[in-house]
Design goal:
single chain; 2 strands; mainly alpha; Arc Repressor Mutant, subunit A; 74 residues
Length: 74
């Protein structure tokens, strides 16, 4: 969550928006998704923050995985 220390653009929720935009276009592997999101994200995107955002989306039911391919569920 954004706070005094974490800017909105560095929050997991904001990064999740970029993940959902990319995965809504087409299903892809984890590595391909990371590369695609990292190119469109306005800052350098660490693997840790990307992984946390993907985990967040899995927990709230927006993503699912089948045969190592991630796809949106909305």
């Amino acid at each position: 969550m954004p706070s005094k220390i974490v800017t909105p653009s560095d929050s997991i929720i904001y990064i999740s928006k970029f993940v959902l935009e990319k995965i809504a276009i087409c299903s892809m592997s984890f590595d391909s998704l990371y590369d695609s999101v990292a190119k469109s994200y306005p800052k350098d995107l660490s693997m840790e923050k990307f992984l946390l955002s993907v985990n967040f989306l899995f927990v709230i039911g927006k993503l699912e995985e089948a045969d190592e391919i991630i796809k949106a569920t909305f």
